[in-house]
Amino acid sequence: MSPMSKLYLDPQLIDRARTAASDIADSLQSFILERTTVAVERTVLRLYGLDGVDADYVPLPNVVVDHLKEGGLLEHGAARYVLNAVLQKGLSIQEIGESVAAGTLNLCELPLASDDEIRQKGLELAHASLDLIRANRAKRDDYLSRLGEGPQPYLYVIVATGNIYEDVVQAKAAARQGADIIAVIRSTGQSLIDYVPYGATTEGFGGTYATQENFKVMREALDEVGEEVGRYIRLCNYCSGLCMPEIAAMGAIERLDVMLNDALYGILFRDINMQRTMVDQNFSRMINSFAGVIINTGEDNYLTTADAVEQAPSVLASQFINEQLALRSGLPEEQMGLGHAFEMSPELEDGFLLELSQAQMAREIFPRAPLKYMPPTKHMTGNIFKGHVQDTLFNMVGVMTNQGIQLLGMMTEAIHTPLIHDRHIAIEGAKYVFKNLRNFGEEIEFKRDGKIVARAQDVLTDAAGKLEEIRDIGMLEAISRGMFADVKRTMTGGKGLHGVFMRAEDYWNPFETLLRAELGLEAMAR
Amino acid sequence: MSPMSKLYLDPQLIDRARTAASDIADSLQSFILERTTVAVERTVLRLYGLDGVDADYVPLPNVVVDHLKEGGLLEHGAARYVLNAVLQKGLSIQEIGESVAAGTLNLCELPLASDDEIRQKGLELAHASLDLIRANRAKRDDYLSRLGEGPQPYLYVIVATGNIYEDVVQAKAAARQGADIIAVIRSTGQSLIDYVPYGATTEGFGGTYATQENFKVMREALDEVGEEVGRYIRLCNYCSGLCMPEIAAMGAIERLDVMLNDALYGILFRDINMQRTMVDQNFSRMINSFAGVIINTGEDNYLTTADAVEQAPSVLASQFINEQLALRSGLPEEQMGLGHAFEMSPELEDGFLLELSQAQMAREIFPRAPLKYMPPTKHMTGNIFKGHVQDTLFNMVGVMTNQGIQLLGMMTEAIHTPLIHDRHIAIEGAKYVFKNLRNFGEEIEFKRDGKIVARAQDVLTDAAGKLEEIRDIGMLEAISRGMFADVKRTMTGGKGLHGVFMRAEDYWNPFETLLRAELGLEAMAR
Amino acid sequence: MSETKRYEPWKDRDMTKVRPYGDTFDDGMIQLSFSIPVPPGEEAAEAARQLVTQMGLHEPAVVHQHDLGEDFTFVVMYAKTKAMIDYTKIKVAKVDSPRMSFYEINEYIKEQIGRKITIIGACTGTDAHTVGIDAIMNMKGYNGEYGLERYPMVEAYNLGAQVENEEMVAKAIELNADAILVSQVVTQKDVHIPNLAQLVELLEAEGLREKLILICGGPRLGHELALELGYDAGFGPGTLAPDVASFVVQELVKRGLK
Amino acid sequence: MSETKRYEPWKDRDMTKVRPYGDTFDDGMIQLSFSIPVPPGEEAAEAARQLVTQMGLHEPAVVHQHDLGEDFTFVVMYAKTKAMIDYTKIKVAKVDSPRMSFYEINEYIKEQIGRKITIIGACTGTDAHTVGIDAIMNMKGYNGEYGLERYPMVEAYNLGAQVENEEMVAKAIELNADAILVSQVVTQKDVHIPNLAQLVELLEAEGLREKLILICGGPRLGHELALELGYDAGFGPGTLAPDVASFVVQELVKRGLK
Ligand code: B12
Ligand code: B12
Ligand SMILES: Cc1ncc(COP(=O)(O)O)c(C=O)c1O
Ligand SMILES: Cc1ncc(COP(=O)(O)O)c(C=O)c1O
């Protein structure tokens, strides 16, 4: 008879860890709910349909939010003033943005309509926006039921030519080669700019700018090729960095399916201020939840700077916290692509056992989450042949432990962003392994007193301990102490703090209100 | 608690199969013991030290044996006449051979000394030869205890430049890269010539001729590099084809460590007459036994012509027979490198499970044999990247099931005999997998009601049935019916039948006599 | 940072100027690996770069090197080529007779030739790889296609492996063969070339060459090489019986060898 | 069939004539793989063969091709080159100051310079890959070697990632740096080249270039490229702190920058 847990994990220990994480999330959540950011407010405007740039290529959402910020009004929420202008001037929100940009309208000086009127208008328009997102979601469901999709683990590959049109050709080729998810990697540097570039772009480095137009271009291309290959092809991008919630909104509007979305990643790897990105993350996840977008968290990255064997507990602890934070944004488990990775040194004797243990443990602890499993990257070298073997072992663990999303390793990982055939070679290898070992995971059991089982139990025990420690000192303090990925960040350090505001008493964000209701967040209280 | 058999194999079924194989071997053995061959007689002369060629490059053992054959004396055993000449002429055996070649001595016309005298001389000289082989064996043991060896599975690679001196440079490089066993592949065509070429050779196709000088050249090179890398490097060649026992003798003299040695291979894949090669095999295996040479059998080859899933039972049946035949030549289990292979189509869903099952089954049924595990060959293509993945899965099964000898797959299998770096890439991949999964096999158990277990049980059941059928109809008839590898061969078809002779009443082979005693074969009776 | 001019050379490709492509259209990117007889180190990397530069590649990057022992070094490289070919001018010698089915071929023989035809095949020289020729000839065939032995209108004789050219010719005479199929799988040091050439010579010496269809095949063979060697056709990997039979029967008719 | 003349070119190698080697010495054997913007098929194979022929390779064999979709084809090839280089003439620009140990370096600074030296480092531009520069600078170091922060005689400042060149220069002035270490890991579309060049320009504009040691490093960088770009040295994969520090301190002394 097979045990409930192949790893004989102690359910009580899991509960302990989860409870600690929940407490951590609760206290973070109170912190978050007291604040708003420029990005959150720009997102509200984008959701109302504000788009385009001014003469200096500054996006109108930035123009309007900066205008309100200068007027000292942002802590009340941008929505109120824009909607007021709609009422007062009879203009569309787009027209208001353009007028502000042209300097012909000053929102701060307009007399305010009654709160009731504003709220009514605000909810009415917001409903219309949400309907559009709902329609996108329905369209995705429709595609999925009509065309179907590849079996899990989904094959996830990146395109990164820097040119959206060239990305299209590489992405379509990848879809034909068998990819299930196409991620358009962003250009270096984008995450640190405090606005979203505009229009279709053809020049990026190590990736292509995330813009709404680029999303649209790629979405169309993937729908087209999806019809031809008879499989819905998911589109992935990055809502992280300084524009987290804005990109979530753009993604919801353009029907993206998967989003990298993790404040911790931004804090640790982009040195983004932790207050800023925690607040941004909360709203971005509400949008992702509603849009049916699967988020990917970034725990895998910890192992690119820190040692994978040692840091395993902190990866798990972070996953627990990310789960709880996601729940507080209304994100169902089915949309939680919690990240982890196959990043141990290939020189390790029995390293495969540890990797397998780790992956199986994540699977059991987050049984419904479509776990995002990252391939070897840090220990990849210019030796493409050995690299292909590393990726093969990774693919084995992926299929043996039923990962949800398999980011395919490229044999050229240490050399360049993938060439058109690098993806093909990776996909071919993964498909072969997934089929040839399809039911292998179900066929085997681990020795109860063996290394695999012991390792998982150790990691879980350590993670639970870590979480309880974090609960005691607080999440933000834990980060300051370098408890994640060996990187230390402070409360007031990093980029973007200037964009954080305490909410005023009468702060109002109509989308937050509606989404809380839609996502059942009002009811949710532990 | 882990079961005795990970596959829950029924020991009684194994016994049934082994008993049938034993009966088959017994009846073959009576057939064999009534016959001798030109190759066996040449081998006797070689063991007595006869070497060199005549003016037409015909090896002296051939000259002498043909001479006796023409004189109608071969059925009495060549030893008698040559020893008689030693006694009569006071010449060394080498001098006798040279005289026969020069036409100055006719062995058939010499008066015969007394049987006692001849036998005494014969045994005396034979003892001296066997001492030499014994010394070689001791030297190997000495190397092994002084230098040590790589862990199992041994990494086995081939060299095949066609030029023994170039083979040396490639072999030494391979040893430095980590190879444990170097096999010098033979040129196409050698197995069908009824003599062993002489001297160092520099031109072969798809391999290098097996000659005694070539053995010597390579042995020296490997001893040299072995000292440098601090690991004894085993040398492998092929004693199969029409000169099976001669090559065994040459190998024993030059301290080879591993020999491909399987009559069934010759019958099925070289169309060598079955009577001839069965008789040859028996004597060759006695020599290999005594010399401490590990033999490799050729069951893996069945899967290159027939389907690996369907033919699994015939591979197992053949292994059982080969084991029993080997025992009857005094070969201990520790020297039985029974062959099998990873040859299922990579397109098969769950193919890995079947391969694993097969390999584990062989391991359990022949627990002490250093199983020779062949890599994917048939389903390798020009796609070197996918091929490297196929080889990786093969290496995983190898280490998971504790195979003894892992013939390393080359990513270029479908293209060319290995280039100098093909071996490196293969060795690197295998070493990585072997280390990264070192104890994985011990860590897992198979589900009792799963596919892996069921498959092994099915194959064993079928093999037992097959063996009982073969026992009923006889081995030679079974081959005629195409029961192995889908290939049919007849009793009198194929090459080399003209070299088979019924032994006369007074047939005498001093080495056979001594080896039977040495190997404890007199005592052996079921 | 962003420009929107749509330059999409991959859409309207100039097929007269085709070069390799990896990441940026027309970048000429190529992966290479090889060994050089020098010890590992920076000089080895430079040697490798100079070698590929001689091949006209630019931006050569040695991304990996490994000591093979015995003063040999293995390198993995990426580099870019400026080479460019005119795809519209490419002509490949192809077997151009339309491919017929099992049924059509037998019908065709009945109608156009009016008698059974005889085909002999073997793997010749010292080559013992029969799987390929078996795939074409044996009853049970290959990949779901029957072999020639199954064809009612074909007398097929598979002579097996390691058949000498002399024996092939003798059999062709004895059986009055309409076609000879030769398989060659071992190609190391080009051992197949003299062997294939010798058969043509023997057939010519016997005055038989023009009287039958001569075909070779194998994984490293193609139609072009076959023509060069004086064969009527050559077949490579993945060939099935109907491919060969279609050619044979149409060629027999075309050449009036009914 | 057998000849015994011992021709062993691999033993007494002619290092003035070095070419790739696979199976038969001097065979020039090379493995290649690349994609071409044409649909799969025999024409694609021919296109690939023509391309490598243009590179001076002969006996090109397309051993594998695969449809990539969108009218692209991936090929794997083997071919032989006639290219040949003179290994004895190879000169590689190398950092030539002898490598000292942690202990020796600190002693050297004490004795030869007589004061603590200041080194600042960062991963510049939009590049955020800090692991490389951290490996050189951080306390805990890399592969068993301490980083510069651990050196008693070195004041090391690791500015982290995505540091603008302007900021680097400002810091160099503020801290009166003796050496600047720049890491560049992202190299797609050669983004690192203008970024590295700009720093040299800024330093020159400030009149600082000659007053300090300027070093760059990263997985796709080497000493040669560094010199071309106007740096004093460049370090590639596997560099450890003592490699860099040895160079810095000896160069400071050599240039009289004590
Ligand atoms: C199976 C096999 C064997 C079997 C052969 C069994 C048998 N009865 O055929 C065994 C194990 C006996 C064997 C032995 C050897 N083999 Co072998 N073998 C292979 C293997 C794994 C597969 C070949 C195969 O069966 N392919 C499947 C068939 C269906 O494909 P195919 O031959 O290409 O045939 C198709 C087409 O080419 C075409 N075709 C082929 N012939 C013809 C003829 C005509 C007229 C037509 C129209 C079409 C046609 O149609 C076929 C169907 O589509 C290959 C490696 C590989 N993966 O390719 C090595 C390989 C061919 N063998 C090789 C070698 C060197 C040997 C040995 C010499 C090694 C040795 N010294 O021991 C021996 C000796 C054999 C000898 N004397 O020839 C080398 C050849 C290297 C080279 N390029 O020269 C290979 C490539 C392996 C390697 N990398 O070293 N081998
Ligand atoms: C870890 C990693 C990351 C981490 C970085 C974390 C961090 N804090 O550094 C994360 C996950 C954040 C990341 C992100 C990205 N990465 Co990244 N990443 C890697 C990875 C896996 C390993 C790099 C590494 O840490 N190597 C280990 C260190 C020790 O080696 P090293 O850098 O070579 O350093 C040594 C030497 O070169 C030298 N050295 C280096 N610098 C210096 C400086 C001096 C002065 C000296 C003397 C010596 C020296 O000494 C060091 C020690 O020996 C590589 C792939 C790989 N396996 O190489 C990709 C890789 C570098 N990343 C890549 C890309 C494209 C990105 C992204 C742009 C992708 C995206 N759009 O999301 C982002 C954005 C990053 C940005 N803005 O720059 C590409 C770059 C492609 C190219 N050639 O241009 C790579 C090659 C992966 C790929 N194939 O696509 N990445
Ligand atoms: C969660 C997460 N967000 C974002 C990114 C990419 O970051 P950026 O676009 O900031 O380079 C990653 C890296 O892969 C990630 O894991
Ligand atoms: C048992 C056995 N003998 C011999 C050989 C090689 O045969 P030959 O030298 O006759 O080509 C093989 C093939 O690998 C084999 O498996």
UniProtKB/TrEMBL annotation, chains A, B:
<dbReference type="InterPro" id="IPR037086">
    <property type="entry name" value="Lys-AminoMut_asu_sf"/>
</dbReference>
<dbReference type="InterPro" id="IPR016176">
    <property type="entry name" value="Cbl-dep_enz_cat"/>
</dbReference>
<dbReference type="GO" id="GO:0003824">
    <property type="term" value="F:catalytic activity"/>
</dbReference>
<dbReference type="Pfam" id="PF09043">
    <property type="entry name" value="Lys-AminoMut_A"/>
</dbReference>
<protein>
    <submittedName>
        <fullName>Beta-lysine 5,6-aminomutase alpha subunit /D-lysine 5,6-aminomutase alpha subunit</fullName>
    </submittedName>
</protein>
<feature type="domain" description="D-Lysine 5,6-aminomutase alpha subunit">
    <location>
        <begin position="7"/>
        <end position="513"/>
    </location>
</feature>
<dbReference type="GO" id="GO:0031419">
    <property type="term" value="F:cobalamin binding"/>
</dbReference>
<dbReference type="InterPro" id="IPR015130">
    <property type="entry name" value="Lys-AminoMut_A"/>
</dbReference>
TrEMBL record, chains C, D:
<dbReference type="GO" id="GO:0046872">
    <property type="term" value="F:metal ion binding"/>
</dbReference>
<dbReference type="GO" id="GO:0046983">
    <property type="term" value="F:protein dimerization activity"/>
</dbReference>
<dbReference type="InterPro" id="IPR036843">
    <property type="entry name" value="KamE_N_sf"/>
</dbReference>
<dbReference type="InterPro" id="IPR036724">
    <property type="entry name" value="Cobalamin-bd_sf"/>
</dbReference>
<protein>
    <submittedName>
        <fullName>Beta-lysine 5,6-aminomutase beta subunit</fullName>
    </submittedName>
</protein>
<dbReference type="Pfam" id="PF02310">
    <property type="entry name" value="B12-binding"/>
</dbReference>
<dbReference type="Pfam" id="PF16554">
    <property type="entry name" value="OAM_dimer"/>
</dbReference>
<dbReference type="GO" id="GO:0031419">
    <property type="term" value="F:cobalamin binding"/>
</dbReference>
<feature type="domain" description="B12-binding">
    <location>
        <begin position="116"/>
        <end position="255"/>
    </location>
</feature>
<dbReference type="InterPro" id="IPR028991">
    <property type="entry name" value="KamE_N"/>
</dbReference>
<dbReference type="InterPro" id="IPR006158">
    <property type="entry name" value="Cobalamin-bd"/>
</dbReference>
